[in-house]
Amino acid sequence: GDDFGVEGLIDNTKKWPGTAKVVSPRAVLIVLYQADVEALLETDRGLDESFGELVDEIQRLRSPRRMQLMWPFFGASEDVLDSVSAAMEPETFDESTLLYDPPNDPCDSLNVVVMGSLNVLRTNGTVDKLSSGAVFGEAALLPKSAKGSAEEYIRSRQETVTTVRATSFSVVLRLPRERYERLMAREPSLAEAYNNSMRQWL
Length: 202
Fold this sequence. Notes:
Mean pLDDT: 80
Helix content: 40-55%
Strand order of the largest sheet: 1-8-3-6
């Protein structure tokens, strides 16, 4: 039931940044080509409007202007944030799907809700309800060796999460930790933005 390559349908100027390899003796895939999607959009006005709204919201949430307001990107340049945006991938989740279930399935990415709704259940029994524009999983981007009041506070918030579950069909933008770390190594200004973000918490 997993999907990949959604990026190619949303923006034909960008390619899916990951790789896929068959590791079982046999695999069956259902493939939806971009040309077929474009043909459907031309003949179905309702689908075209819904798809357009989704694409507009994704582009808005990962625009440099929006991301500059998001931890840990305070103060990063637009050029750098374009690289971060390209590294984020959209994923879809059906209602009742479990996104994360620490410690069995820990959160390993920063996530931005594009559409739909999620429930974040915490150890004290409280439930955080997330909708479009909400961000979660920030602690996944922290260096493993980082120690200090800001990092410990962010980690402590994530450690209280027991599950994250979709309560409706949802689309989430994900920035996996390994991609963020590669960007940090390549873009010094992104590392500087991280340090500035940490100072904002102090």
